[in-house]
């Protein structure tokens, strides 16, 4: 395999405060590369092996779903992991297909962060570091949720197996619920005796999933968070335009000395407004690219998670096992968190973009000459262009997120009435 230059990132990108927690995880998985990395092809091969093993395992999960088709309790017990893996695999394959575009999005975000840290003033840097702290807390919370969900299921299956084995129920004729780990398809007639092999295979796959699922979703959210950070800094710049002009600083450069300081200040105001228009245009293009890279997967999540949340609620309400209820709740929290992360930050981008015209109106425009105000009006007109992300026909907003939760609960109510 010949590696292209656009697939390989600079080493400094992996030290970016906003991105490093997630892109280093993707680097370990094997889908991101850096220039000084030895054995790049071997790293790519590791990523392909991880993805291929997840894909093969996911096929066996669908075989299992076919075998238990009609038994709602057993179907929902396996459907959560099956569909979560499916959506993740689709995202990884989509990355391979659009590797250059994803790497370019990382590069643009890194360049924007580096420019802000180099030329931004103290309030802009404070906005950035507040978002970094927010990103770190968000990453920790989502990782904890994902790790607890996956590890609880693995440990619970092992405890179930040891309990049933000690009671010798495997050889008895009495009905019993098999461990969750034995629900998966395996090419042998005696899956009980092959428990160790099955368990190790699923444990390996589960830990691969624990690596890629949190890393991928938080990675995409970090790119969305960069867009929100850039919009917040732009809002601050517009609201305090006069401070930028009076300070004599623009993009880290001192303005030249002229005979008429007021005339130069007016020119600086115009240049600042033009810069704001250019920055907003870049943010618009960047957000549209993120939308194009996420809309397919998000539309699939919109359809799949609505039904799956309903199924998990039904299983949690039907089982008598406290541990199984806990696992179902963890899965519900994980899937709800995935949807919330995307829809919340897409809503934040839309909200910050809507503030731009108000921020432009907050400066001392009434003291500006007409030539400056004409530039300001141009920006306000341009900023009124809506900046909302969509998953094809589905708008990514908090209203849509709440609609998904309401629809899932409605499906659950109907299913519960039909089962009762």
Automatic annotation (TrEMBL):
Major location (coarse): membrane
Assigned keywords, A-Z: Membrane, Olfaction, Receptor, Sensory transduction, Transducer, Transmembrane, Transmembrane helix
MF (Gene Ontology): odorant binding; olfactory receptor activity
Record flagged with keyword Transmembrane: yes
Gene: GPROR11
Membrane-spanning segments: 44-63, 75-97, 140-159, 204-227, 298-316, 322-344
Name of the molecule in the record: Odorant receptor
GO (cellular component) term, any one: plasma membrane
Domain of life: Eukaryota
Family of the protein in this entry: Belongs to the insect chemoreceptor superfamily. Heteromeric odorant receptor channel (TC 1.A.69) family.
Record membrane topology: Multi-pass membrane protein
Cellular localization per UniProt: Cell membrane; Membrane
GO biological process, one term: signal transduction
């Amino acid at each position: 395999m010949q590696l292209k230059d656009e697939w390989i990132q600079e080493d400094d990108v992996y030290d970016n405060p906003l991105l490093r927690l997630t892109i280093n995880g993707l680097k370990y998985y094997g889908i991101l590369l850096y220039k000084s990395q030895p054995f790049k092809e071997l790293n790519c091969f590791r990523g392909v092996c991880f993805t291929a093993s997840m894909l093969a395992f996911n096929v066996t999960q669908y075989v299992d779903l076919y075998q238990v088709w009609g038994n709602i309790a057993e179907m929902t017990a396996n459907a959560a992991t099956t569909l979560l893996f499916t959506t993740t695999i689709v995202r990884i394959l989509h990355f391979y297909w659009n590797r250059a575009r994803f790497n370019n999005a990382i590069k643009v975000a890194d360049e924007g962060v580096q420019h802000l840290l180099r030329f931004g003033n103290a309030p802009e840097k404070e906005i950035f570091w507040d978002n970094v702290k927010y990103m770190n807390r968000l990453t920790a919370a989502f990782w904890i949720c994902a790790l607890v969900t996956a590890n609880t299921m693995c440990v619970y299956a092992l405890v179930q197996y040891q309990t049933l084995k000690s009671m010798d129920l495997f050889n008895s004729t009495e009905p019993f619920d098999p461990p969750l780990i034995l629900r998966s398809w395996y090419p042998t007639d005696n899956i009980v005796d092959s428990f160790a092999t099955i368990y190790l295979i699923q444990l390996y796959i589960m830990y691969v999933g624990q690596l890629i699922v949190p890393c991928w979703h938080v990675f995409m959210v970090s790119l969305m968070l960069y867009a929100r950070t850039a919009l917040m800094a732009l809002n601050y710049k517009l609201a305090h335009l006069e401070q930028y002009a009076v300070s004599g600083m623009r993009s880290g450069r001192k303005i030249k000395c002229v005979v008429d300081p007021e005339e130069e200040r007016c020119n600086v105001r115009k240049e600042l407004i033009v810069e704001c228009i250019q920055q907003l245009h870049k943010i618009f293009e960047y957000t549209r690219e993120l939308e194009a890279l996420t809309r397919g997967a998000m539309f699939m999540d919109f359809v799949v998670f609505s039904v799956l949340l309903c199924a998990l609620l039904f299983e949690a309400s039907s089982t008598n096992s406290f541990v199984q209820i806990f696992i179902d709740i963890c899965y519900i929290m994980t899937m709800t968190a995935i949807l919330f992360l995307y829809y919340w930050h897409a809503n934040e981008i839309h909200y910050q973009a809507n503030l731009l015209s108000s921020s432009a109106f907050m400066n001392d425009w009434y003291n500006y000459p007409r030539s400056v105000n004409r530039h300001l009006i141009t920006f306000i007109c341009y900023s009124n262009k809506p900046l909302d992300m969509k998953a094809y026909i589905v708008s990514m907003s908090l209203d849509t997120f709440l609609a998904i939760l309401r629809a899932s609960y409605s499906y659950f109510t109907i299913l519960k009435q039909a089962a009762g």
